[in-house]
Amino acid sequence: MTELAVNMHDFPEPSAEDIAAARDAARELSKVSPAGKMIRFRVEPKDQETLSEPIAIPLAIFKTIIELLVKVGNGNAVQLVPVQAELTTQQAADLLNVSRPHLIKLLQSGELQYRMVGTHRKVPAKDLLVYRDKMSADRRDALGRVVASDEELGLYDDDQPIKARDA
């Protein structure tokens, strides 16, 4: 497996110009109707006299580019993590948005796989992404059960505004 040699904190938030440009690009590119497994487009060079040859990219990559543009257009910093990458425990903790000690507990309990490289633990990105998705789904299910229980007990009412307490 390959090592991911970047720090996840090295990616600044996108600027207002970046957000606007990404939003516009995502909107325009999402209008493209693919006619196969490849998307072909032509890049317009600085001098308008000569156009480049058409560029072809796989449809899956084109869709990923649009997803990235949407995320940046929503103001999020974006980083690509190769599925085959191995992350350090700090990178893995950052990806899961948990503390490093909590991640170590997950590794030691066997909830996440890792391998030792010398004295360092390396965690497969693919396993982290699967775990993150599973935890998100579990949280959504638990929240749904709480809402359903509150509705059964009559504790959940969308129509009632929340009133501030008198001091």
Rg of Cα set: 23 Å
Structural class: alpha+beta
Helix content: 40-55%
CATH class of the largest domain: Mainly Alpha
The order of strands across the largest sheet is: 1-4-6-5
* Molecular shape: extended
- Range of strand content: 5-15%
DSSP helical segment count: 5
Give the strand tally.
Answer: 6
Mind telling me which CATH architecture of the largest domain this is?
A: Orthogonal Bundle
Question: What number of domains?
Answer: 2
Order of helices and strands: EHEEHEHHEEH
Nearest-integer average pLDDT: 84
What name is given to the CATH topology of the largest domain? Multidrug-efflux Transporter Regulator, Chain: A, Domain 2
Give a brief outline of the structure.
45% of the residues lie in helices and 13% in strands.
